[in-house]
Write a sequence for this structure.
């Protein structure tokens, strides 16, 4: 570990999907975190990779400038540049990684590469500018739930992870988004299902839960059963979805959350670990957060739920990992290409 006592200014860049984001940190403290979300994909029911890359190109310089300005930090004061190397959409990653590499060359400052999924987990270590936030002790379990991944991870240290289980098909965020599309909601559907479910009856309809080995997950069968259920009902009543939108959302969401919670509880029992965290876009789900708090009370878990700003994609989580990597002298080579797929 690099024990340099001096303060380190980290510039973090995230561009793995459809959010262009830049954050400036002093050590693990957030000075700024600017996220520029691409609204255009709402028109297409999902992220269009080619459009995402082009918009990252337009947004990256203004986003970096805004983050520096908000932090009141000059380019010349940056000590290290951290960027998302993967996983994600390759065109989107190329924009952020090329920008980070160019900046590293121009400023003659070191570069560190960050794994997006690790960053979602380590978002729990982001400290506010003023004050100190409680962070999880190691080891802890993290349920990482995003648009691209669903994993149960044993976090052994800031840079050591063991995957205990993961999805064998769709990610849970995809299950939310594809389910929402079937119900006629726009992209991203997760927050909309969350919203309509609040006024619905979660026991109105039953959907079968998949049987998966060990701590693995599966969501594609659930999505298909929603599709067939809706089609059958619509053949009898064209207005079925409109009339029962809230109940459909609540019942579908309930099944997704049951799948997640059953595996999380099993993982905690099997490992004997009671420090539990969630991470990723789906951890913004209000019902998931509520149910986790109640499970934590019943099971004496030490629970860590991220602030809403750190659930979905953001560069603050990239910068905080950048700080850990810098302290550990884990620098990156300009030659390494981004990668679209891998776990942690
Ligand atoms: O972590 P994230 O921003 O991007 C990826 O790395 O994939 O996650 C995006 C996913 C989307 O599938 C979105 O629908 C889901 O997170 N999401 C939610 C909620 N907010 C975002 N899902 C359920 N309830 C929410 N409130
Ligand atoms: Zn993400």
């Amino acid at each position: 570990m690099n024990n340099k006592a001096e303060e380190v200014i980290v510039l973090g860049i995230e561009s793995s999907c459809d959010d262009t984001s830049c954050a400036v940190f002093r050590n693990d403290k957030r000075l700024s975190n600017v996220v520029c979300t691409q609204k255009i994909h709402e028109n297409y029911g999902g992220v269009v990779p080619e459009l995402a890359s082009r918009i990252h190109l337009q947004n990256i310089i203004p986003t970096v400038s805004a983050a520096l300005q908000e932090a009141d930090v000059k380019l010349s004061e940056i000590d290290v540049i951290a960027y998302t190397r993967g996983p994600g959409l390759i065109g989107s990653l190329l924009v952020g990684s090329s920008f980070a590499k160019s900046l590293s060359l121009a400023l003659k400052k070191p570069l560190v590469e960050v794994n997006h999924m690790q960053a979602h987990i380590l978002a729990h270590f982001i400290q506010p500018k003023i004050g100190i936030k409680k962070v999880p002790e190691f080891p802890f379990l993290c349920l990482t739930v995003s648009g691209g991944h669903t994993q149960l991870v044993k976090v052994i240290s800031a840079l050591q992870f063991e995957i205990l289980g993961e999805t064998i098909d769709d990610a849970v965020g995809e299950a939310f988004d594809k389910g929402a599309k079937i119900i006629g909601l726009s992209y991203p559907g997760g927050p909309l299902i969350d919203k309509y479910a609040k006024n619905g009856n979660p026991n109105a309809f039953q959907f079968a839960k998949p049987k998966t080995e060990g701590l693995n997950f599966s969501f594609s069968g659930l999505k298909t059963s929603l599709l067939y259920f809706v089609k059958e009902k619509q053949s009898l009543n064209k207005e079925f979805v409109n009339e029962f939108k809230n109940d459909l959302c609540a019942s579908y969401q309930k099944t997704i959350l049951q799948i997640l919670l059953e595996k999380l509880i099993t993982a905690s029992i099997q490992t004997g670990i009671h420090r539990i965290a969630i991470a990723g876009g789906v951890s913004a789900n209000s019902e998931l957060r509520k149910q986790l708090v109640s499970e934590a009370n019943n099971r004496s878990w030490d629970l860590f739920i991220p602030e809403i700003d750190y659930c979905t994609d953001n560069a603050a989580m990239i910068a905080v990992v950048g700080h850990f990597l810098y302290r550990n002298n884990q620098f990156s080579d300009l030659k390494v290409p981004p990668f679209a797929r891998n776990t942690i």
